[in-house]
Amino acid sequence: MVLRVRTLTPEEHLAFLDSRESASFLQTPAWGEVKREWRAESVGWVDDSDSGEKIIGAGLVLYRRLPKMRRSLAYLPEGPLIDWTDPDLRRWLAPLTEHVSAQGAFGIRMGPPVVTRRWSGATVKAALSEGGARTLGAIPADQTDHAAIGVTEQLKAMGWRPPADGDGGFAAGQPRYVFQLPLEDRDEQAVLAGMNQLWRRNIKKAAKAGVVVSHGSADDLPAFHELYLETARRDHFTPRSLSYFSTMFRALNSENPDRVRLYLAHHEGELAAATIGVRVGTHAWYSYGASSTAKRDVRPSNALQWEMIRDALAAGARLYDLRGITDTLDESDSHFGLLQFKLGTGGEAAEYVGEWDLPISRLLYSAFDLYMRRRG
Asked: What is the pLDDT of residues 99-150, one digit of tens each?
């Protein structure tokens, strides 16, 4: 095969994604509409030796200009969707580099959707009980994908390098460590039985307290956002705007009417918590969450997660993704509570190969790197 990269129409891109079991929602054509501050382009890999020009790989490229410059960083979050098992990745990545360079890119950043290691909940709990290990990487993984590790070796040989990451897996882009709940060949009873006692008790407590979970519409986004701002103040993170969520809701659901859902948990007529879930094929994600401090005792967040998991099962999802964690096992670390909450679902921690950069113009890439460091 002699591979070439060309621009795809949104329709071609979406048709390719629909032919696959799943892909990250950050690699859908609609995500380009959400990221308005970036210029979006759908690209596809075709075999030049095939006169039919069948698309065999695809990606969403987001171009971000350097301040006061005409050159851009080309970013493929959680992508592209190519054959990462190929022992010769150069034939896939060289035409990508050529294409984005012609578009004015001074460098590329991508996040291959390739998992290197997995740790079961039981393994993580045992490590916490024994003490000593301060990070996930310090304990033996239950699964190690040596082919995935081979991907990193190929990338290094081609001049790709991981961006600086000083926060245990929370880099400037997408998280390297995530927490996932396998759903394949399981029903509600099996998933519930796999949760820890506290999670099962909190789900029952929410139901007994009268927490009512429902699906919201775009009209409910302002109420979600008000609660989200309260959560941001409490948990000390920078919130996104209401317009961001409105655009996300409209763009993703215009691509597929069941791509994104808003979940609302009410208690005694008041909004106690809310979440946003996304699904592409057999992969479902918990994307955003918000909760009321005053209503925390009736456990609306557990009720919402359980409803999202049930919906994912009903839709035939094989994986429910609770998104990012850091690799810390240190209970004094401010990020530890996130792992602790997600651990109760009975899922597993997973490590991706992470994001990788290829400087096309080393001078401009260095300038961009310095700019991002000063911002961060």
From this structure: 999 999 999 999 999 999 999 999 999 999 998 899 999 999 999 999 999 9
Which tokens hold the place of 335? 């990020």
Question: Domain spanning 115-352 has what CATH number?
Answer: 3.40.630.30
Beta strands 105-110; 260-267: pairing state: unpaired
- In order of 83, 117, 174, 332, the CA distances from 336 in angstroms are 35, 19, 18, 7
The share of the chain scoring above pLDDT 90, in percent, equals 86
Distance CA 363, CA 368 (A): 9
Interior angle at CA 81, CA 88 and CA 246, nearest 5 = 155
The amino acid at 327: D
Distance from C-alpha of 329 to C-alpha of 308, rounded to nearest angstrom: 27
CA dist 316 and 181 (Å) reads 14
Q: Which two tokens stand for residue 63?
A: 């171009």
* Cis previous bond, 80, omega within 30: yes
**What pLDDT is stored for residue 169 in this prediction?**
45
Predicted pLDDT of residue 170: 40
CATH of domain 3-111+355-375: 3.40.630.30
**Residue 139 neighbours by CB under 8 Å, 6+ apart:** 119, 123, 124, 127, 133, 329
Distance CA 361, CA 366 (A): 9
For the chain, the straight-line distance linking the first and the last C-alpha, in angstroms and rounded, comes to 42
Task: Round the average pLDDT of the chain to a whole number and report it.
Answer: 93
Task: List the strands of the sheet with 39-47, edge to edge.
Answer: 3-7, 39-47, 55-65, 72-76, 105-110, 356-359
Instruction: Indicate if 115-352 has the same CATH topology as 3-111+355-375.
Output: yes
pLDDT digits (tens, 9 = 90+) for 205-252: 999 999 999 999 999 999 999 999 999 999 999 999 999 999 999 999
Q: How far apart (Å, rounded) are the C-alpha atoms in residues 284 and 315?
A: 9
User: What is the per-residue pLDDT across 159-214, written as a single tens digit (0 to 9) for each?
Assistant: 999 876 544 444 457 899 999 999 999 999 999 999 999 999 999 999 999 999 99
Residue 87 Cα distances to 57, 84, 149, 152, 337, angstroms:
16, 8, 12, 12, 39
* Maximum C-alpha span of the chain: 65
CA distance 328 to 134: 6
Domain ranges of the chain: 3-111+355-375, 115-352
